[in-house]
Amino acid sequence: MPQISFSRRLRRTPFSEGVEAAGVKGYTVYNRMLLPTVFQSVEADYRHLKSHVQVWDVSCERQVELRGPDAAKLMQMLTPRDLRGMLPGQCFYVPIVDETGGMLNDPVAVKLSDDRWWISIADSDLLLWVKGIANGYRLDVLVDEPDVSPLAVQGPMADDLMARVFGDRVRDIRFFKFDMFEFQGRDLAVARSGYSKQGGFEIYVEGSEIGMPLWNALFTAGEDLEVRAGCPNLIERIEGGLLSYGNDMTDDNTPHECGLGKFCNTHTAIGCIGRDALLRVAKEGPVQQIRPIAIEGEAVPPCDRPWPVFADGKRVGQVTSAAWSPDFQTNVSIGMIRLSHWDAGTAVEVETPDGMHRATVQERFWI
Amino acid sequence: MPQISFSRRLRRTPFSEGVEAAGVKGYTVYNRMLLPTVFQSVEADYRHLKSHVQVWDVSCERQVELRGPDAAKLMQMLTPRDLRGMLPGQCFYVPIVDETGGMLNDPVAVKLSDDRWWISIADSDLLLWVKGIANGYRLDVLVDEPDVSPLAVQGPMADDLMARVFGDRVRDIRFFKFDMFEFQGRDLAVARSGYSKQGGFEIYVEGSEIGMPLWNALFTAGEDLEVRAGCPNLIERIEGGLLSYGNDMTDDNTPHECGLGKFCNTHTAIGCIGRDALLRVAKEGPVQQIRPIAIEGEAVPPCDRPWPVFADGKRVGQVTSAAWSPDFQTNVSIGMIRLSHWDAGTAVEVETPDGMHRATVQERFWI
To answer: Which of B7, B40, B273 to mutate: most A Cβ within 10 Å?
Structure first.
């Protein structure tokens, strides 16, 4: 397996020192920043995540900050989700689309106040799109990347660990809401969110210099909870149907193809740049869509390129994320499947580097 | 050293199969695509590059294509370099700046015709900035990423190898010009350019399916020239003063700070979005600038974060790329140094992970 070559361009994070001390074994690059992928092994990390609590360096979820009188207007231009009812203290998962309705990112929008927003981005330089739009439309808004690095605390013991560091009030944060909590004299936004189905929080760490103090505080407080350094887990996120921008969808896809139609209010999202382009697909539905697919046979290798999906010798889609699930004793995967074959129970074949595997479209994701 | 974890999101290239067969040992990620960094060793690759010829998979230099009546207008909006005199068949190195004059990329612009351009980008999603601007200003232009993957042929024997595959006419291409050459029924743009000082070409391979046929044709034709798979070489590019966006400069820096003032015609580049912001620095000059810095002592470790540069105990800059040079028997490096200390011969100190090293600002880069 080739090594990763470090350079300043692959940005380190406020927590890299802790990640290294914890023995990180693998990295990917996400928003030009290092994102750990393995500590013990993907399977051991998965077991631990499902039974204990982990601290994840997800600094790579960079923030795009919108600040100024046109911030809310700009935010609505970016997404077909109707944001009129959104209150400060809420987080919304928002598909971001270009003028053709193609997805540019699938971030979480964080509304700090009416004129101040963070967009907690997936893997694309959304900052550049937002800056370009703000400039082209001459909006009265500042757009930049602040010194904010999310740290996730995930797993069934997340509430207990967080309460020890931030107090019992963290237990009251509801799903996809955030509140402000003090740490070493700083006010930090803490949201109940994260890229797993095991429950937990994301701490928006503002100010790199408090990164390691917070990291260390969490590990000290959680020793008897068997807290470990972790990272988004490939197996668990596929079991949970958590999509990955760049893997499971690209700017070729509409939100509707990605099963994100429920986050689109195309008729009422007035001002959204991609609205016109999406009206038809919003009404008539897409011709292909994301589906969970169970792949039979031995454990498949890592999915590093789209694997074609066939039915009766005809190509009907592709698989873009796959892993062996120890809990479900099958290969779990995420694919984009044509309308003709997307019904649950449909038998298909997936062409992997190890050969053709029989597979079945599932009704729902595994967890 | 941690491994890189593969996924579809870290895009493979039309040449990945050849790169793997050649035994690639290290990767970086560049524009969300795999870029090889080592084959034998960085030093062995360096020796070979300087004496023979290498074929480089630089597909990660993605193209942003501008097509339509407003293409030239849009291109000029992006850069402070005056493009009025640029002819089809020319390549221009163009700093791209935002409305504050901060660098967003330092690509090569390729003028195919008056209404069709490619921007061969460094590591940032420039596509999103260009699409945002085109949309915001309602320009009559298509902006997208075509299926074009550059393959570089670099080294002193590059002309000989290329002539065997494309005919002797390639020898006539002048520096930073391109011409069209036929390969297996396709017309490909071939430019005399590349990210080394050893001479050579970049082939803009249009159509992924001819990637491996071309790769194989080059290796078959070059067997007796000892052609090898290679990649941009850290040592050689620092010796040659070839900057790396994301390493040596970011959107914090103006082109003038990067020593790219000679590529700016701020007064006549009418329409450039960052023009107003750059007028003052163009006249008065920057307060810090890129400099070659020789670092004394043992070979330094990889520079994976900015290393502070001091003089008389005061911080006067930072080093962002560094490597031991076998040919010059010193550590060669690229730094950004304050005006007060940027004169050639100035003694400074560089704080590396291995401790403080004495260093000297150089008059010019090494090659």
So the answer is: B7
Nearest to B136 among A1, A126, A133 (CB): A133
Per DSSP bridges, beta strands A288-295 and B355-361 are unpaired
The predicted pLDDT at position B238 comes to 98
Q: Give strand pairing partners of A202.
A: A152, A191
**Does A27 contact B at CB distance below 8 Å?**
yes
CA dihedral A272→B74→B114→B104, nearest 10 degrees, is: -110
Question: pLDDT per residue over B301-352, tens digit each?
Answer: 999 999 999 999 999 999 999 999 999 999 999 999 999 999 999 999 999 9
Beta carbons of B28 and A10 less than 8 Å apart: yes
pLDDT per residue over B191-239, tens digit each?
999 999 999 999 999 999 999 999 999 999 999 999 999 999 999 999 9
Please report residues of A whose CB lies closer than 8 A to that of B238. Answer: none
Chain B contact probe: residue of A6, A20, A139 with most B CBs at under 10 A = A6
Prediction ipTM score:
0.96
Distance, CA of A227 to CA of B2 (rounded, Å): 22
- Per-residue confidence at A1, pLDDT binned at 50, 70, 90? confident
Strand order in the sheet with A228-230: A178-183, A186-191, A200-206, A148-154, A54-57, A228-230
- Global pTM? 0.97
Distance CA B349, CA B316 (A): 10
Q: Which chain A positions have a beta carbon within 8 Å of B3's beta carbon?
A: 1-4, 25-27, 38
Distance CA A49, CA B214 (A): 47
User: CA nearest B306 in A: which residue?
Assistant: A8
Q: Residue A313, exposed/middle/buried by CB under 10 A (0-12, 13-18, 19+)? A: exposed
Q: Is the pLDDT of residue B1 over 90?
A: no
Per-residue CA distances from A311 to A340, A342, A358, B347 (Å): 10, 11, 10, 70
* CA–CA gap between residue B246 and residue B232 (Å, rounded): 15
Chain A residue with CA closest to B320: the answer is A8
Q: How many degrees, rounded to 5, is the angle at CA B104 between CA B103 and CA B106?
A: 80
- Checking if the pLDDT of A81 tops 90, the result is yes
Q: How far apart are CA A15 and CA A150, in angstroms?
A: 10
Whole-angstrom distance, CA of residue A108 vs CA of residue A245: 13
Chain A contact for B125 (CB, 8 A cutoff): yes
- pLDDT, tens only, A310-350: 999 999 999 999 999 999 999 999 999 999 999 999 999 99
The candidate with the shortest Cα–Cα distance to B149, out of B237, B56, B84, B244, is B56
Q: Catalogue the E-assigned strands of A282-346.
A: 288-295, 307-311, 314-325, 330-338
With CA atoms as reference, report the closest residue to B148 among B215, B67, B206: B206
Q: Does B32 touch chain A (CB under 8 A)?
A: yes
Q: How far apart are CA A153 and CA A54, in angstroms?
A: 6
Q: Do A135 and B135 touch (CB under 8 A)?
A: no
A and B: number of Cβ contacts within 8 A: 170
